[in-house]
Design brief:
- With 326 residues, the protein is of the alpha/beta class.
- The chain has two domains: 2-171 and 222-250, Rossmann fold (3-Layer(aba) Sandwich), CATH 3.40.50; 189-220 and 253-320, Alpha-Beta Complex (UDP-galactose 4-epimerase, domain 1).
- The chain is built from ten helices and 13 strands.
- It has helices spanning 11-22, 54-63, 78-83, 85-105, 139-158, 189-197, 225-241, 258-269, 293-299, 307-320; strands spanning 2-6, 26-31, 45-48, 68-71, 110-114, 161-167, 169-171, 204-207, 219-220, 222-224, 246-250, 256-257, 275-278.
- The strands form four sheets. Strands 3-2-1-4-5-6-11 form a seven-stranded parallel sheet, sandwiched between helices. The chain has a two-stranded parallel sheet with strand order 7-10. It has a two-stranded parallel sheet with strand order 8-13.
- Strand 1, helix 1 and strand 2 (26-31) form a beta-alpha-beta unit.
- It is globular, with a radius of gyration of 19 Å.
Amino acid sequence: MNILVTGGAGYIGCHAVRALVRKNHQVTVLDDLSAGHRQAVGNVELVRGSTGDKELIKKLCLDHNIEAVMHFAASSLVGESVRSPGDYYRNNVVNGLALLDAVVESKVGFFVFSSTAAVYGEPQNRQITEEHATMPLNPYGATKLALEGALRWYGEAYGLRYTSLRYFNAVGADPEGDIGEDHTPETHLLPLVLKTVLGLHPRLEVFGVDYPTTDGTCVRDYIHVADVAKGHVSAIEYVKNNPGTSVFNLGTGIGTSVLELVRAFERASGVAVSWRMAGRRAGDLPKTYAATEKAKRVLGWVTEKTIEDACADSWRWQSKNPNGYE
């Protein structure tokens, strides 16, 4: 298929681009490079621009005979969204609607949305299924849910076939070690672990050690980014061949605490991690992890990588590229 990937120079997006190329799809990337990196795209064509530029997107769809859009471009930091909700609504919702309008007007039939588990809010059950109530606790999750809602009605009105993927905490890097996670500022746990052991970060801060969990730290479903990318490839192929709309969780179904991840990294790398306790962050939940049976049953998608794999692959990437993409 000819696929337009928005935000394809970002962390999740660039791994999805690589997975699509490996499956012989023809990929064009749209990214404003506000958070992404040109080097992460490799030889794939990258057009610099915004998802809010409807005319640009329509031109890309026409010029490249685009059949499907995979949408990653978004602001995605929970704490920042709490401080600056307007910025998140403008980028994630307003620009997202412009993208959907361009897609419909260009008669592109298929859409895969990179959503988030943050749409669920406080877990009501041990594992979160796709039928769980959606009550986001921060503007990041609320804006993702808002675009999911728009997708539903665009599907009803225009016949747009879409899949929304609610994935949990992506970690790791491509095993080749040439693409990985590089944010400025960096707020994600595993990259901060890596930078700490390389002396690029003074000491790892663990935000909250008094949560109602086994060791007092937040529990998350950490899923290897290669498995997330593979899920997006499965989704684009599914939505092409199946009418209607659908929502899937992408996760491992296993909860891992912050300190458990730190220990997994120490096992994978043989390097000790220095850390200190810090206060809780606004918007953080004590425990979230996925029920993944629907994705396994319908998409035929299963995770292949462990948390140790994610730590080892991230360590390989960061060791080769201590300053990221530079």
